[in-house]
Every structure is written in C-alpha cells, then in structure tokens.
Amino acid sequence: MGVEEEYLLVDSGGVPSGVADAAVRAHERSGGEAADEGPPGGGLEHELQEQQVETGTHPCLELTDLAAEVRDGRARAASAARQAGAHLAALATSPMPGPTTLTHGARYEALAQAYALTVRDQLTSGCHVHVSVADDDEGVAVLDRIGPWLPVLLALSVNSPYWRGEDTGYFSIRSQMWNRWPTAGPTAPFGSAQAYRDTVAGLIATGVALDPAMMYFDARLSPRYPTVEIRVADVCLRADDAVLVAALSRALVETAARQAADGVPPGHTRVEPLRAATWRAGRSGLSGDLLVPPALTPVPARDAVAALLDHVRPALTDSGDLASVQDLLGRLWQRGTGADEQRAWAREGGLPGVVEQAVAATVA
C-alpha cells in the first residue's frame, strides 16, 4: 500500500501562497527525487493550483514503515515550503480567503478551459490510498464491494470545516466541492473489468471527461499503478490519522477480494444511497449518524466505525495491524477529527490561529 497526500502552502498570515513551483525546485536542489521519475514515492509534486503540493510514499507492506514514510513526506514538503518562503499545512480546504493560481501546463489549462469555476474554486486537498491488486479483474471486484464503507473512511478523515473565511457547517466541505466534478463520487457495481473500461471510455467519448486520469471516483483503478486507489478521504491533519485511513483501506480491499473469491456478491446495486451516505459523512463527520451497510441505515458514528472494524477484523488480524488500528482509533476518539480540532482552535485564536496550529500539527 501507499499514500498520496496533498497540502496547502500558506504565508505567515495563514493565506494560501502560490509558491509550489519554487518549493518543488527547492526540493530537487536539495537532492530530493524528481516527480514522475522511477518508482512511486519519495518526491514532491505540483497539484492543480500553485497553492498546493503533493507527496507520496513508496509502496509499503508494514504499517510501521508506512507511518515513517508519511511523516518523512510531510517533513520533506515542509522543508521545501520553508525554502520557498511559505509554510505547509495539512488542511483539506483553506480557512482563510485567498487567490488560486493555476499550475502551468497544457493539461491544467485544458481543465480550466473545460470546467471554469469548478477549477478556480478547486483549492482542496485529499488523501489517496493505493492498495495493490492482482489484476484489473480483482480490482473491479474490490471496487464493486467496498463502496458502502467508503463514507465511514471520509468521516474518520474530515478536516475541512472552513471555506474562505466562513464556517460552512460541514465537517468536510472538501467532499462537497470535489463532487462538483462531473466524474466524481461513488459508483454502482461494474461487474467486470471490461465493463469498467467501457465506462471509462464512454465518459471520455462524451467529452465531459478529458482522459482516464479524470475518473475522480471515490475509488478507482489507478491509471498509473497496479492498484485500487481509494480517494474519498480529506487530507488528514495528523499523520496518525492518515496511517489509520490507509490501514483500514488495505483491510477493506483484502476483505472485498476474499469475498469475491468466495462468490459473495456486492451488497449494493444503486448509487443514490451511496451519494446520501457520502453527503452525511461530510456533513457531520463523527458527530452524528452515519449510514452503514448492508441497508445503509443511520446509526451513531461510533457504532458505524465499530461495524467497519468488525467487517475488516479478519484482514487486520492476518496483516498484524489490528492492535495498531485500535490504538490509532482510540487516539482519534480522544482528540477528535481534524475538523473538531480546527473549530476548537478557531474559538481561541480565530482563523489565523487555526492555520498556525495546523502548520505545527502537520509535522508533529
């Protein structure tokens, strides 16, 4: 498994700062790996806006190794940001208002031309977890079975209550902004790898999607690696929570692969309840009810997380991750989500204080 994290770059006042190009160049001058060279992980990359950068881990088998890689990536990005005159913040949206500056490049310019305000507003940062699969057939079988559980992962990661100076009332406004893309969100079961490929080709043929990389599903077959890529989560404020989301994601993939091998059919056929479950998770995080399989009925968030843990317990036990996941969950319940922490900081120091505290928490 591996983790990609997107971050905000902010100035000393907490306002988004468009210095990604300088940060990436500083990273490469210091001997860091260049983007898109060699195996995945270890680099620092541009994102859609110049106010963002992205890191990725190398593929990891052990959770301890992944945790070290996540922390190293954050430290690497924070150092590059400082060299560019900015700070790094693991915030899924910016609490402070500020401009967006499109990253240079033909593809980004094509996105801006095609999607207009959606691109200009898209200063959002997510956490993407890659889990290896045997082939596309196993990957699609996994996608067809994990969808009803993905909103619980979103609820665990919520880290975007503020949007340009305003408390939105959501725990993840990023998930709302992200779902403005025409190809974003949950998917119904595909049934086969060929059906998945046909769906991708059909969306591109409509002209609504520019290329396979624009399949912004909550979970998809990665267009770059032999993995299932789970994309539903906010970037986590704390590195511990990113590791938790990754461990649960791998366990979900393993559980689904076992179900498919045993002939267990997908537990859902319609996308509408999944959209409702995703909205619910983004609206209230862990503070209210979540919708859980098999019927996607509302239950208190603690019960929903417990149900997810029970669902993947055999896979967590077999990988040796169960005790670590239980410990990470305990810490999360004790301190709250990133959205909880942001709102607590805002009561003490306003939105500039939120960003200042988040910069420290990003590499804590």
Automatic annotation (TrEMBL):
SUPFAM superfamilies: Glutamine synthetase/guanido kinase. This is Putative glutamate--cysteine ligase 2. It comes from Cellulomonas phragmiteti. Its EC number is 6.3.2.2. Keywords: ATP-binding, Ligase, Nucleotide-binding. It catalyses: L-cysteine + L-glutamate + ATP = gamma-L-glutamyl-L-cysteine + ADP + phosphate + H(+). GO terms for molecular function: ligase activity. ATP-dependent carboxylate-amine ligase which exhibits weak glutamate--cysteine ligase activity. Belongs to the glutamate--cysteine ligase type 2 family. YbdK subfamily. HAMAP family: Glu_cys_ligase_2.
